[in-house]
């Protein structure tokens, strides 16, 4: 064997040895790349117990305890009164507990604590209020059906030990995604959708939709109902409410204008499903619960927060424009929505005053006064549909800017009608 052959043999031996070392490190000492299933007992609602088997998910869930402003300056989860930024809330919700206490949502781990501390809750509050606050909802519904909704809230809060957590969205025995809110299941059935046959990708939005949606309480029973039978746009839901479904007419009567007001409740799912992300099949979890890796293990983040805090994981798998441009685009959308939302809220507040003044006048035109109240009722619903949601319009900026534009126009029409009623119209 000549010198060249010896060098070649030595080199090949080194390559084989080196390759063997790499393979052994990759395959023998390879970090776990998928989460191993650990079955938990049915009815286990304590997230700390779940965390012992799923430490990465639980560690990220605990980040929801951190309170901080949003990167874009809107919403966030600091416990501040929304009226600090929107003083028109005091006027528009006058006569309703939201005028006394309308704090930012602090996130899932605080759901029960914030419910107990809310000034909107009084001695007469009903059990329906726990529907989206705790996994105990599952047990309450199993034991009482919709009867839980009319029980005293204090009675159910004593039994609900844990806030929104793992069991709200996961079957403890299979870890499969699930929906426990019967109101969502029933609403989807009315739309011809069987939630039990949903794909996993659909469930990655349904588990959020079961709570992040508009609803009302059925008079007498306090059953929770989603107003989706005519569609999920603000216009379609307003038409649904106009039929006085199940005898439901209003959330409250404004003491100044006597408008029967509809109070919107965080229609995030409705916004999203009509927006570009929803229409193109991007789930809620894709953006708000992105995939992460730690020590080679892939897991789903359960830190449910603004995607602007996790742009690399939430946005760049689809968008390649760069973090600064993506952030700037989101901020621009939200700035534009905020400007119109604030204008709409202020105009609606003025409309309440105009109608009050007209109604207190001498022999006002009742037809015009009734017309003014209907215009303002619709205007406030459109404004509140956007204002009560959590994305400052980003879930569907095209729809929300249009909705706010309609709210402003309707509020001006209400003022004009009120002036006609009072005989002071200058046009």
Describe the structure.
With 427 residues, the chain is mostly helical. It is built from 18 helices and 6 strands. The chain has helices spanning 3-28, 47-53, 55-62, 88-92, 111-117, 137-144, 153-159, 166-169, 182-190, 200-209, 234-242, 268-274, 276-279, 284-288, 311-314, 323-359, 366-387, 397-422; strands at 216-217, 224-225, 252-253, 260-261, 291-294, 297-300. The radius of gyration is 27 Å and the shape is globular. It starts with a helix and ends in a 5-residue tail after the last helix.
Radius of gyration: 27 Å
Poorly predicted sequence stretches spanning 5 or more consecutive residues: 14-33
**Shape, principal axes of CA atoms:** globular
**What's the arrangement of strands in the largest beta sheet?**
1-2
- Indicate the structural class: mainly alpha
Number of helices: 18
SSE series: HHHHHHHHHHEEHEEHHHEEHHHH
Largest sheet: 2 strands, antiparallel
Helix share, percent: 40-55%
Distance between the termini: 109 Å
Mean pLDDT equals: 92
Strand composition percent = under 5%
Please tally the β strands and state the result: 6
Summarize it.
With 427 residues, the protein is mainly α. Helix content is 48%, strand content 4%. The chain has helices at 3-28, 47-53, 55-62, 88-92, 111-117, 137-144, 153-159, 166-169, 182-190, 200-209, 234-242, 268-274, 276-279, 284-288, 311-314, 323-359, 366-387, 397-422; strands at residues 216-217, 224-225, 252-253, 260-261, 291-294, 297-300.
């Amino acid at each position: 064997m000549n010198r060249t052959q010896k060098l070649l043999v030595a080199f090949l031996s080194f390559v084989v040895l080196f390759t063997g070392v790499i393979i052994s490190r990759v395959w023998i000492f390879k970090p776990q790349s998928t989460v191993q299933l650990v079955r938990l007992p049915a009815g286990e609602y304590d997230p700390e117990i779940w965390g012992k088997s799923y430490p990465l998910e639980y560690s990220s869930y605990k980040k929801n305890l951190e309170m901080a402003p949003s990167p874009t300056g809107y919403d966030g989860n600091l416990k501040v009164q929304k009226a600090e930024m929107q003083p028109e809330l005091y006027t528009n919700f006058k006569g309703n507990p939201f005028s006394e206490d309308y704090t930012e949502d602090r996130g899932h781990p605080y759901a029960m604590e914030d419910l107990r501390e809310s000034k909107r809750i009084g001695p007469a509050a009903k059990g329906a209020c726990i529907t989206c606050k705790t996994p105990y909802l599952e047990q309450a519904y199993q034991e009482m059906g919709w009867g839980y909704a009319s029980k005293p809230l204090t009675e159910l809060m004593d039994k609900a030990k844990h806030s929104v957590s793992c069991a709200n969205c996961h079957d403890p025995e299979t870890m499969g995604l699930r929906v426990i809110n019967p109101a969502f299941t029933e609403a989807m059935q009315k739309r011809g959708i069987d939630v039990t046959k949903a794909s996993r990708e659909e469930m990655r939005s349904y588990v959020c939709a079961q709570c992040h949606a508009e609803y009302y309480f059925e008079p007498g029973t306090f059953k929770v109902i989603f107003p989706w039978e005519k569609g999920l746009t603000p216009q379609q839901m307003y038409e649904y409410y106009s039929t006085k479904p199940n005898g439901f007419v209003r959330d409250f009567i404004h003491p100044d204008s006597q408008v029967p007001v509809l109070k919107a409740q965080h229609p995030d799912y409705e916004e999203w499903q009509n927006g570009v992300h929803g229409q193109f099949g991007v789930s809620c979890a894709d953006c708000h619960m992105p995939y992460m890796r730690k020590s080679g293990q892939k897991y789903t983040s359960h830190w449910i927060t603004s995607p602007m805090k996790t742009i690399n994981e939430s946005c760049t798998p689809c968008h390649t424009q760069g973090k600064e441009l993506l952030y700037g685009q989101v901020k621009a959308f939200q700035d534009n929505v905020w400007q119109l939302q604030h204008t709409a809220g202020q105009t609606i507040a003025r409309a309440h005053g105009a109608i009050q003044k007209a109604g207190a006048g001498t022999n006002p035109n009742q037809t015009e006064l009734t017309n003014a109240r209907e215009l303002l009722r619709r205007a406030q619903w459109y404004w509140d549909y956007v204002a009560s949601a959590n994305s400052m319009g980003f879930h569907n900026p095209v729809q929300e800017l249009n909705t706010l534009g309609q709210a402003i126009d309707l509020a001006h029409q209400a003022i004009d009608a009120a002036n006609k009623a009072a005989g002071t119209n200058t046009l």
